[in-house]
Specification:
77% of the residues lie in helices and 0% in strands. The chain is mainly α. The chain has two domains: 54 residues, no CATH class; 73 residues, no CATH class. It is flat, with a radius of gyration of 20 Å.
């Protein structure tokens, strides 16, 4: 539930601020932390996918936008990881900014989905 995740966030902030609480956090075994993260990200991913109930997935346009955005969201961060100097504009600050954004799969997928949804033609009902 939302209350549990908010409580978890408060606990994380307290652990970050208070050193003695952080020492208690370090004693938690990695397997417990891994299981907790699997559960947390599973719920997070499920909430994201639940938003697809409002999308007409019988429309080829929407399926293509969804598939392309997820695929590029997986591929581009992997490409940036393998080729960290692949983005070279000649401006060091811009290169670092673009590399940082391209390494974030959620940002890439969201950006591509937003771009495609606003540029690919379709009837109005399929765009809602």
């Amino acid at each position: 539930s939302r209350l549990i995740l908010q409580g978890c966030g408060v606990i994380y902030v307290l652990f970050a601020v208070l050193g003695k609480l952080n020492a208690a956090f370090i004693t938690i075994p990695y397997s417990v932390l891994g299981g907790t993260m699997i559960l947390y990200y599973g719920i997070f991913f499920g909430v994201i996918l639940s938003q697809l109930q409002f999308v007409n997935l019988n429309d080829t346009r929407n399926l293509a936008i969804l598939g392309i955005s997820v695929l590029v969201g997986f591929m581009l961060p992997h490409w940036v990881e393998k080729r960290p100097d692949g983005l070279n504009t000649g401006i060091e600050g811009l290169d670092r900014t673009l590399t940082m954004l391209a390494a974030n799969g959620v940002f890439v997928a969201g950006f591509v989905a937003c771009f495609l949804d606003n540029t690919v033609s379709g009837i109005l009902i399929s765009r809602l």
